Amino acid sequence: MDFNPDDARQCLEDVDYPASKEALASAAEGNGAPGELVERLRTLGRPNFSGPEVVVAELESSPISG
To answer: How far apart are the first and last CA of the chain?
Structure first.
């Protein structure tokens, strides 16, 4: 999956922060995010995130499996 920060932000726009990675994954899934993005959110290294920019930075630095 090619990572697009704008797509990730759009899928997470309804999230109340701070948020857990599971809350992020659930919100993204509910907003129609691709399954690969949802799975990447679930496997991020930190348990909680203070805002969308922190999530995007973590996604950008995390390895893409597969």
So the answer is: 9
**How many Cα atoms are found within 13 Å in the side-chain-facing hemisphere of 28?**
26
**Residue spans per domain, the chain:** 5-61
Task: Record the tokens describing residue 10, joined without a space.
Answer: 């759009």
- The tokens for 24 are 């992020």
For 8-51, the pLDDT digits (tens) are 999 999 999 999 999 999 999 999 999 999 999 999 999 999 99
Distance CA 7, CA 37 (A): 10
- In angstroms, the CA 4 to CA 6 distance is 5
pTM: 0.87
Cβ atoms of 44 and 21 within 8 Å: the answer is yes
